Amino acid sequence: MDENASGGDSDDIDWNTDDELEIASYGLPSCSSMTVNDGETIAGSTEASSSAGSSSSKMIDHFVGMGFSEEVVAKAIQENGEQNTDLILEALLKHSASSSASSSKSKLIDHFVGMGFSVDMVAKAIQENDCTVNAVLVGLAIHVHDKAGALGQSSQAEQHINSDQNSPELDGSFLDGFSDTDSFEGEEITNPDPDKEEKLVSLASMGYSVQEASIAMERCGPNTSIAELTDFICAAQMAKAADALLAEIEDKPRPKPSNGYHKHKKRRMLDYEKPPIDEPIRLPNPMIGFGVPSNPDVIVHRSLPEAAAGPPYFYYENVALAPKGVWDTISRFLYDVEPEFVDSKYFCAAARKRGYVHNLPIENRHHLVPLPPQNIYEALPLSRKWWPSWDTRSHLNCLQTCIASAKLTERIRKALEECDGEPEPPHHVQKFVMDECRKWNLVWVGRNKLAPLEPDEVEMLLGFPKNHTRGGGISRTDRYKSLGNSFQVDTVAYHLSVLKEMYPDGINVLSLFSGIGGAEVALHRLGVRMKNVVSVDISEVNRNIVRSWWEQTNQKGTLIDFADVQQLDANRIEQMINAFGGFDLVIGGSPCNNLAGSNRHSRDGLEGKESSLFYDYFRILDLVKNMMQRN
DNA sequence: GACACCATGACCCCGATT
DNA sequence: AATCGGGGTCATGGTGTC
User: Fold this and answer.
1) In the CATH scheme, what is the homologous superfamily, with its name and number, of domain A306-371+465-630?
2) What is the pLDDT of residue A85?
3) Nearest nt to the A324 alpha carbon by C1'
4) Are strands A313-319 and A585-588 parallel, antiparallel or unpaired?
5) Does at least one atom of strand B sit less than 7 Å from the CB of A452?
6) Dihedral angle at the C-alpha atoms of A303, A305, A307, A311, nearest 10 degrees?
7) In this structure, are strands A340-343 and A353-358 parallel, antiparallel, or unpaired?
8) What is the average pLDDT across A253-282?
9) CB neighbours of residue A18 within 10 Å
10) pTM for this one?
């Protein structure tokens, strides 16, 4: 980000810097890996790693399998030597980027126009700056937005922008691109109001034009929420019978706000004529989505909105019990696809109520085998001996990121011991114990003795291999945290299982907010071959966990990881799409910190610090969709 | 009213560093 | 001895649904 913002050799990967140093620091003996700038790491397959004996043709096959042309691969091998697969891969990625450079300018224009900026504005900005700088404008806008609203989420992103929160050049950099256009009000440039500017940038990062955003804020007043502003903008868009912007775009209509927001706005505009028809999204009871293995035929067919159809297939996950309106917004952005709400208690011994927005087929899904333990007794057979009859739990509650304190379990033990002579504790003691058990997922480990789950038990319940998060310098606390933030593998695998027959040769995966690799583990356990996986996660220990798992399971594909979704700008995505031939699956669950009920401090909804990263999921998915449809 | 919830921040302890 | 930072421990309440 920083290098892009500063222009210069921004889009050129600097192949000759400290790569080797960073490679050494990762220390991966069995698997070739490298770190490109921005902390991107590429781990090649073991078969492609730099064993001196590997034949040239085998290596060519390998890279051809990744989507590069044979001719280009041969040339790269010739220039870099067989020994260094990392350099070859770098050269290939670089080549794919440069070969697409000629068309990148018009694509850039298309892209930004598609986001709502005027053609004049985009053309002027591109003329005045290097193409690549402009390609990062959206990312920059989001950076500024994050800086204002999400400080601290991404240390790397912060570092890349500027460490000074009040940096004038940062504030100016986004605005400068438009400062001399007639659509921008000088007042806001010379004397920006922080709150106003933040909203402006938020709206810009959501794909609205600066002009639209400015007008909306002027009309609606200073205290208007983002949601209200977006509604206003879409109302204005609807009011325009002929949208000049859209007329200039030859590809499909803008997907996100145009679909849902227009629909909703139209409705709202007509509120005074007739009552609203659309109902807000409600959670189903029982929470079995479109069907679970034990009850698979609830909904056997659904029709997706046209703009939602894949490929690429996408799969987005977050907590089901988010504040009001959050899932409506998520659904509107994700092409109006109806969320599938599923409780993992239908798949394993622990509850996990989640919403999934995806465009995967829902026919002929199958569950993972072997089936995971279906209840507490199966999952924790040793606890059965101590389990009192009055503890009627068959399933655990949601596995969270922290566990009960030792003091609490001690208090419980004492309370139970006080009524040891009786056949059963009195009702009020039972209630106290059961309340705490449900709250903290305590399990019986001895007479009158309750304890929180061990990390490896959480791994098992979530469908991960034992010790998946162990080692690599991760603390116990962080293991709970990473696990608590993860997918339930069996549940996700059930939804992804349709990919197995659709892609017998394997898939390319873009995995955002990967965490400890729930998506990757699910695909692996399903037997879906992963040709190339681009995995993004802010946490270094999580990235190490995924990479370590990748090596241990002898994956034949290539794992590339990034620390920050902000690194995935249009250029880099295009580069990877050209290299791999596109992504088949864009999967991820953005942070739920500001949505989760457990958070009493900053449950700020989708505009909260961390949870606003949902918009990055949409931004990246939409970029991938647009680029793949053009190619 | 009961229940559930991918959490946060203050504090303490301990080992490493200066 | 002073300082620092990471890990562990602990208490904490509001929102939404049923």
Assistant:
1) Vaccinia Virus protein VP39 (3.40.50.150)
2) 55
3) C16
4) parallel
5) no
6) -20
7) antiparallel
8) 39
9) 12
10) 0.66
Q: What is the DSSP string of A93-153?
A: HHHHHHHTHHHHHHHHHHHHHHTT--HHHHHHHHHHS-HHHHHTHHHHHHHHHHHHH-TTS
Assess contact for A352 and A401: CB atoms under 8 A: no
* Per-residue model confidence as pLDDT tens digits over A444-492: 999 999 999 999 999 999 999 999 999 888 999 999 999 999 999 999 9
Q: What is the mean pLDDT of chain A?
A: 71
What does the DSSP 8-state code read for residue A337? P
- The terminus-to-terminus CA distance of chain A in angstroms comes to 26
Mean pLDDT across A249-255: 33
H or E element that contains A614: helix A614-630
Statement: the CB of A435 is under 7 Å from strand B: yes
Residue A5 near residue A142, CB atoms below 8 Å:
no
Contact A546, A514 (CB under 8 A): yes
Q: Report the largest interatomic distance among the alpha carbons of chain A, rounded to a whole angstrom.
A: 85
pLDDT 10s digits, A198-222: 666 666 656 566 656 665 565 545 5
Q: For residue A618, what pLDDT band results from cuts at 50, 70 and 90?
A: very high
A373 touches strand C (CB under 7 A): no
- Can you read off the two tokens belonging to residue A159? 């570092």
Tell me, what's the pLDDT at A576? 96
Where along chain A do the CATH 3.40.50.150 domains lie? 306-371+465-630
Amino acid at A544: N
- In this predicted structure, what is the pLDDT of residue A420? 86
How many C-beta atoms lie closer than 10 Å to residue A582's C-beta?
18
For residue A70, which amino acid is it? Answer: E
* A488: nt with nearest C1' to CA: B6
293-332 on A, CB < 7 Å from strand B: 317-321
Radius of gyration of the CA atoms of chain A, in A: 26
Nearest to A16 by CA among A94, A82, A72, A75: A94
d(CA A574, CA A570): 6
Give phi and psi for A37, each to the nearest 5: -60, 165
Q: Please, what is the angle between helix A570-580 and helix A85-99, to 10°?
A: 110
Distances (CA, A) of A541 to A303, A474, A477, A481, A565: 40, 6, 12, 11, 17
Side chain identity, residue A560: I
pLDDT tens digits, A38-89 = 445 565 443 333 333 344 565 666 555 555 666 666 777 677 666 565 566 5
Main-chain dihedrals φ then ψ at residue A315, nearest 5 degrees: -150, 110
pLDDT at A607: 87
Whether residue A311 has a cis bond before it, omega within 30° of 0: yes
Top-confidence residue, A104 or A323: A323
pLDDT for position A83: 59
pLDDT of residue A348: 95
Nucleotide nearest to A345 (CA to C1'): B4
A194, burial (CB in 10 Å: exposed 0-12, middle 13-18, buried 19+):
exposed
Scanning residues 536 through 565 of protein chain A, those with a beta carbon under 7 Å from any atom of strand B turn out to be none
